[in-house]
């Protein structure tokens, strides 16, 4: 080949090109983004609409349904999901992965514009937004100290602005703080004496805290701006606010209210490592990089600590980049270990440091060139792309091994250095190109297949492809060039490695003997192979199915829910008991963040103080003796003994699926019927092995007190519904009248009724409402209070009501659990008009398996097409394709022995094997043809080719297998994702190699005889 000859003739030029590529690769690597998984571009649009005061049923009928109908006809929509909650509607549109979301958003806005005129008067303007389900906080940072109000102030004024200035940071949210405010607590009796209402007090406070312009006056040659100052400068100024009574008398605010600086009412608590804290969550920009943002925030933390008082501490609670860094480090270690194993195999076979060095140089060149190609194609450094490099580390030297081994053969025949390099590389180059191309083409269908499997594993496919292309180029240029310069002296076989030569000679002799017998008993050989393949297929039902193995990130979530309507103190008592459970394992807990209760609002008489949640980060996997799942199960058993609360413990993972592992979606017209069915399904699946913490989306609402205004009675007093609701809201929740600026702070001035006057039903009924005539009437005169069960969220999918039963998966595989659920659900009699389907990860898994099965079929076809072009006939490629069924034995046996289910990574491994296992057969058949063209008789050509090619076949197979051993063990953080892929390739390639070496020559003779008969006829 001209490329080989040119590289030998121009060694300086080849060297300069390689150095330039290496330099470009180092620059590219420094600029590559680092993340856990590749960016998944899921085109999702959201339409959010407010409808204040409306119940879920009204929201669904008047807002959700019209919007659903308007967007349902937009091209490219796969699924429409909708939620109708008290006061708001949310319609989520999920488009097919090939949809241009920018164009889709324009179509959504046009469709919504057509119906927004038909929405009820009280509905707000619908907002159309793009939605990124992966836009989760990168970090959580906690401030701990003695005074939460001070912590809140420091967060808002010092830390938040500092963090938001950092490169790549999108936004910084603050949770768990208590804000300071000026509280104006009204004295209702004094107000009644003066005939005043809370609204009049609020207007007086608002109007008294204003500064305004008084125009311009001249003074000599200057114009002076006149400004009338009227803003509050102290609390005394607020107390001295003048209020005019209906009797045209003037009183001060202090006469009818108490004015004090205080904090907002407590409706929740936040804890960091068991201490009260204020927590900030940091979100990255859409195009931001997780690790880079983490580095920026960590640098900013040092600056922040210098500004904080001595009694305030700021520390990182959770940093998602930590696991990414550890995962990438683990993959790099596995890559280096694989490279070491591959080099040791080369040294063992080649018996020459120079020859080993010649081949080993192709590894760093291929890796660094891959980084360059990744940079220019927009890929990121993540556990899949780096895993692809680690998987390909053994394959990178395959081409170099075959070429160098053939060059050595010519050198042993007495050729000069340059002649051996030229003839040896040129003769074997077509077979090397063919074998590498067959490995490459199997990835083409993955790139073009839609769905989540393609989104996740296209980067892996591209990375392996880049590495193989770079290694092939190095094999055809660098290896011949270095061989012509460095292989001056060959080993004579003497010395400490002589034992290996004798062992290898015995193996070759044994193999040739087995091959000779197999050629004499061809039918028996075919029969034995067929029986072994069929026997391995019988193990398939025992493998199980899984989506993508979850990495052990050491993160656990604890959810606590006390009985509906419980107050904050009751929930805190339960939380203390949960804390005691986790404290027993304090040695393995690195950090924890707990949030208890949340603020209530609106017209609901109460707040969601009956819930709490924890995020717990365990120490790294290598520093503990138990897995995250084992800790989760232990805690779950212990918290079930805590009375008075529903507590669940689950593992948090970096799942790439949008749903829970197990989801049973119930569809039908009536929500109450769906709720009953959901309870039945929860009971049915709860005792299935592997199902953990089953629950339904139709949870029972919390009790609340609804205020129902009698509009006819209100009209008799000259009042409207809105006027009454405004006064009630002001008295129960308080109303912000203005802002008070002091010492660089801006505090809200809240007008409210004292808590002890609005704490019971009787006190609420006795609240005074001011009429337009100035009279004060009791609330119960124009309204009634009704205690009801709080409204639930109504969900719909594809314009049909839906309730979802979901559960976690523990100790079993997804396929087995899903089949058991499906079997039990088939016995459930559903009313007419109701149905169910299995969603979540199970649905994603089956869709991905379908896409990958199609990709496998296309890959096999492309492998055959490439070989047909290479051999320039259809027969020899067809013979080589018989090596594919033999890989099934290794794949199934490998998964069965290691106890791994058939998952998406394992399926990807099968597709990769389709391109790898044929390489040995290509090299073998190609050399048989070369010998036969030289006049060697068929039987002798086969036996000689087998003995001659066994050495390079063993070298290429063992380097690939041993290069993947570290990944197959699942060493380090995040190793679970690549483990099934590596296991499949190792076992599949090993068994295929052993069987192919005998089977392919037998099949070759059978088809050669058949072709001769056809030619004679």
TrEMBL record:
Transmembrane segments annotated in the record for this chain: 12-29, 331-350, 357-377, 383-408, 428-448, 460-482, 526-548, 852-871, 878-900, 906-929, 950-969, 981-1007
GO cellular component annotations of the record: plasma membrane
Source domain of life: Bacteria
Alphabetized UniProt keyword annotations: Membrane, Transmembrane, Transmembrane helix
GO MF terms, alphabetically ordered: xenobiotic transmembrane transporter activity
Pfam families from the UniProt entry: ACR_tran (PF00873)
Name the UniProt record assigns to this protein: HAE1 family hydrophobic/amphiphilic exporter-1
